[in-house]
Write a structure and sequence with these properties.
Layout (H helix, E strand, L loop, with lengths): L2 H10 L2 H12 L13 H21 L3 H16 L1
Helix pairs in contact: 1-3, 2-3, 3-4
């Protein structure tokens, strides 16, 4: 997971574009947007993180940094 790649997706794409990218990765199709990542797994991680962060920003009237912190907390808990 690369934070700059996630930030770029959040700043550059709409929710619809991110959802289309997620579907393309899952269906092994060409991506409709540029998604950084070493492989499809990392690309999917970046897209899912961007979707979660955008939702958090909208639902909580939060900025990117706050939403990113909440996402990384969630990831840390799931790993432990």
């Amino acid at each position: 997971m690369k934070i700059p790649a996630i930030k770029k997706l959040v700043e550059s794409n709409s929710m619809d574009e991110l959802m289309a990218a997620e579907a393309a990765i899952v269906d092994e199709q060409a991506l409709p947007i540029e998604v950084e990542g070493d492989d499809e797994g990392e690309q999917l991680t970046h897209v899912l993180a961007a979707i979660w962060i955008l939702n958090h920003m909208q639902d909580n009237s939060a900025d990117f940094k706050t939403s990113l912190r909440e996402y990384t907390k969630k990831v840390r808990v799931s790993i432990n």
